[in-house]
């Protein structure tokens, strides 16, 4: 592992970078720089929380707080993994609102606009507590050390893998193996292709600075989606016969495709609902405990359409699409597979972490 499974590099401090779902607004609040391809700078705070504490941060239940926004696909991965593994009691979760300004994500959903555990209004405060004058994007997901109020890491690639491999002593009984050792090479290979062409590919379309860059990203995206459709036509999951980290990484992009990426990012060759295999696959996962019950479509749409004002100057949020079809039968059970392997589904989320049913058709 180590933060490079998605083609990125890591760093501890300094420099200027963009990461996660929050592209640092370089000038005048713009996300799109005219004249070329969108490039995601993948330098993150590379600190690891491990069982042997080799970076100075030991696995310790109750010590850390996972900061997320339900709008962000990268943070959504961590929400799903934490939920499937049953780590809610070991790692608490701070949920930022769906929008942010140039300064930071804010905890405006909490009473008084302040996270009740960290005691901060903005996630930036945790970054500055560790790195005064921090110059890079204040991104989610991030893990914060509660006693010191310092950010530990925002390196979202290895963060989710570490929850699977380093926090095993605190997994729930029946937790699935999302990163089985015998399949790790294949999971890493598939995940790298997903990141390059799909997870980051939709952003390369949406933030392209000229026609040529957009068309290149567009073709890479849909070529890869076609490849995924072919792969999944005869097997229920991406790698092996159970849900793995690769499925989680694809799902968080697919679930945002029709509400956001198809229109807002001009990924409009086909809607997800017009790609039969991927649409059935996405519905299968959405209806699986731990997936659909983490999704807040209202937060997702508000984030992209309200924050990216150089793409959507009015900030108007579309009312569609109709979301009820996420609960229609998918028929993927016919392909076999065991969603949780030898494990069991997670129980319902804690009451404080349940998504507003007015925002999402819950399975």
From TrEMBL:
<dbReference type="GO" id="GO:0005737">
    <property type="term" value="C:cytoplasm"/>
</dbReference>
<dbReference type="InterPro" id="IPR040079">
    <property type="entry name" value="Glutathione_S-Trfase"/>
</dbReference>
<feature type="active site" description="Nucleophile">
    <location>
        <position position="72"/>
    </location>
</feature>
<keyword id="KW-0808">Transferase</keyword>
<feature type="domain" description="GST C-terminal">
    <location>
        <begin position="177"/>
        <end position="307"/>
    </location>
</feature>
<protein>
    <submittedName>
        <fullName>Putative glutathione S-transferase</fullName>
    </submittedName>
</protein>
<feature type="compositionally biased region" description="Low complexity">
    <location>
        <begin position="7"/>
        <end position="22"/>
    </location>
</feature>
<dbReference type="Pfam" id="PF13409">
    <property type="entry name" value="GST_N_2"/>
</dbReference>
<dbReference type="InterPro" id="IPR036282">
    <property type="entry name" value="Glutathione-S-Trfase_C_sf"/>
</dbReference>
<dbReference type="InterPro" id="IPR016639">
    <property type="entry name" value="GST_Omega/GSH"/>
</dbReference>
<feature type="site" description="Lowers pKa of active site Cys">
    <location>
        <position position="261"/>
    </location>
</feature>
<feature type="region of interest" description="Disordered">
    <location>
        <begin position="1"/>
        <end position="32"/>
    </location>
</feature>
<dbReference type="GO" id="GO:0004364">
    <property type="term" value="F:glutathione transferase activity"/>
</dbReference>
<dbReference type="InterPro" id="IPR047047">
    <property type="entry name" value="GST_Omega-like_C"/>
</dbReference>
<dbReference type="InterPro" id="IPR004045">
    <property type="entry name" value="Glutathione_S-Trfase_N"/>
</dbReference>
<dbReference type="InterPro" id="IPR036249">
    <property type="entry name" value="Thioredoxin-like_sf"/>
</dbReference>
<feature type="binding site">
    <location>
        <position position="105"/>
    </location>
    <ligand>
        <name>glutathione</name>
    </ligand>
</feature>
<feature type="active site" description="Proton donor/acceptor">
    <location>
        <position position="203"/>
    </location>
</feature>
<feature type="site" description="Lowers pKa of active site Cys">
    <location>
        <position position="304"/>
    </location>
</feature>
<feature type="region of interest" description="Disordered">
    <location>
        <begin position="333"/>
        <end position="363"/>
    </location>
</feature>
<dbReference type="Pfam" id="PF13410">
    <property type="entry name" value="GST_C_2"/>
</dbReference>
<dbReference type="InterPro" id="IPR010987">
    <property type="entry name" value="Glutathione-S-Trfase_C-like"/>
</dbReference>
């Amino acid at each position: 592992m180590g933060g490079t499974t998605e083609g990125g590099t890591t760093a501890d401090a300094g420099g200027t970078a963009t990461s996660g779902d929050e592209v640092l607004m370089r000038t005048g609040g713009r996300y799109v720089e005219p004249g070329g391809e969108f490039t995601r700078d993948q330098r993150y705070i590379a600190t690891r929380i491990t069982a042997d504490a080799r970076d100075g941060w030991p696995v310790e239940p109750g010590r850390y707080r996972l900061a997320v926004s339900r709008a962000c696909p990268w943070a959504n991965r961590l929400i799903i993994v934490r939920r499937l593994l049953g780590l809610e009691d070991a790692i608490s979760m701070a949920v930022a609102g769906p929008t942010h300004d140039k300064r930071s994500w804010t905890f405006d959903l909490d009473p008084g606009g302040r996270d009740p555990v960290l005691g901060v209004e903005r996630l930036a405060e945790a970054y500055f507590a560790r790195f005064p004058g921090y110059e890079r994007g204040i991104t989610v997901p991030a893990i914060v050390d509660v006693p010191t109020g310092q950010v530990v890491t925002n390196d979202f690639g290895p963060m989710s893998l570490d929850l699977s491999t380093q926090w095993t002593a605190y997994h729930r009984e029946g937790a699935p193996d999302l990163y089985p050792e015998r399949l790790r090479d294949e999971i890493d290979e598939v995940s790298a292709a997903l990141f390059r062409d799909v997870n980051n590919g939709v952003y390369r379309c949406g933030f392209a600075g000229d026609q040529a860059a957009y068309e290149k990203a567009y073709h890479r995206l849909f070529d890869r989606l076609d490849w995924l459709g072919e792969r999944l036509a005869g097997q229920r999951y991406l790698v092996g016969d159970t849900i793995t980290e690769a499925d989680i990484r694809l799902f968080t992009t697919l679930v945002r495709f029709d509400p956001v990426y198809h229109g807002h990012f001009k990924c409009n060759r086909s809607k997800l609902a017009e790609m039969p295999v991927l649409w059935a696959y996405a519905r299968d996962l959405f209806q699986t405990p731990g997936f659909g019950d983490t999704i807040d479509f209202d937060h997702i749409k508000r984030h992209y359409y309200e924050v990216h004002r150089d793409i959507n100057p009015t900030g108007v949020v579309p009312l569609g699409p109709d979301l009820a079809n996420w609960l229609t039968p998918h028929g993927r059970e016919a392909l076999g597979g065991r969603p949780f392997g030898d494990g069991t589904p997670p129980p319902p989320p804690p009451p404080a972490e349940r998504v507003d049913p007015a925002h999402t058709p819950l399975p």
